[in-house]
Amino acid sequence: AQSVTQLDSHVSVSEGTPVLLRCNYSSSYSPSLFWYVQHPNKGLQLLLKYTSAATLVKGINGFEAEFKKSETSFHLTKPSAHMSDAAEYFCVVSEAAGGTSYGKLTFGQGTILTVHP
Amino acid sequence: GAGVSQSPRYKVAKRGQDVALRCDPISGHVSLFWYQQALGQGPEFLTYFQNEAQLDKSGLPSDRFFAERPEGSVSTLKIQRTQQEDSAVYLCASSQTGENEKLFFGSGTQLSVL
């Protein structure tokens, strides 16, 4: 079974300061890991995904995440927050059970990011 | 279409009513998923279609929930005899193949059961 734990339900930063959203996962198989962002009244949007290639994954809008197998973590970072980054972020795992994975995703509880001017 | 379209955007139902939620995936996308997102929670998997075949319905919470995709494009999620605990946002997503592929999500249908 797979699961995801987002360690902070709310994160508040000032514009221009770094962002760190923490995520730990549990998986029986080689996982694929994702970060999705959800702006109010908009659909979930993929930020980045890890699928066993490079452990440091770069995504859209300056976000990146590092896969650390020893720590079972996949934290999301951004060097400098922008006001438009304010949204809810979901860490997601997709498990390749039996050699196939068809996009059945397990979402974390979400982290609401607030950016102050 | 340009993206995944869901209708209605909002639905209010009295307890015991039946509801039908529609999803128009991106044209040509083989895989279609339904997720349920309760207030303050992450989305939870309900069911998965590959073309018209429903390959996984393990997430459907009860036999009151039924989904179909008869022609492999538009999908309908039906909830019979709605209960208050069914209140949630129902999200539809599609992808070209589904296998660790990028999912495109619709904006969802917010269902409120009174």
Explain how this protein is built.
The complex is a heterodimer of chains A (117) and B (114). By secondary structure, chain A is an all-beta fold. Chain A has one domain: Immunoglobulin-like (Sandwich), CATH 2.60.40.10. Chain A is built from no helices and twelve strands. Chain A has strands spanning 3-6, 10-14, 19-21, 23-26, 31-38, 45-50, 56-58, 64-68, 73-78, 87-95, 105-107, 111-116. With 114 residues, chain B is mostly beta strands. Chain B has a single domain, classed as Immunoglobulins (Immunoglobulin-like), CATH 2.60.40.10. Chain B has no helices and eleven strands. In chain B, strands 2, 4, 5, 6, 9, 10 and 11 form a seven-stranded mixed sheet that branches. Chain B has a four-stranded antiparallel sheet with strand order 1-3-8-7, with no helix packed on it. Chain B is globular and about 35 Å long. Chains A and B meet through strand 6 and strand 11 of A and strand 4, strand 5, strand 9 and strand 10 of B.
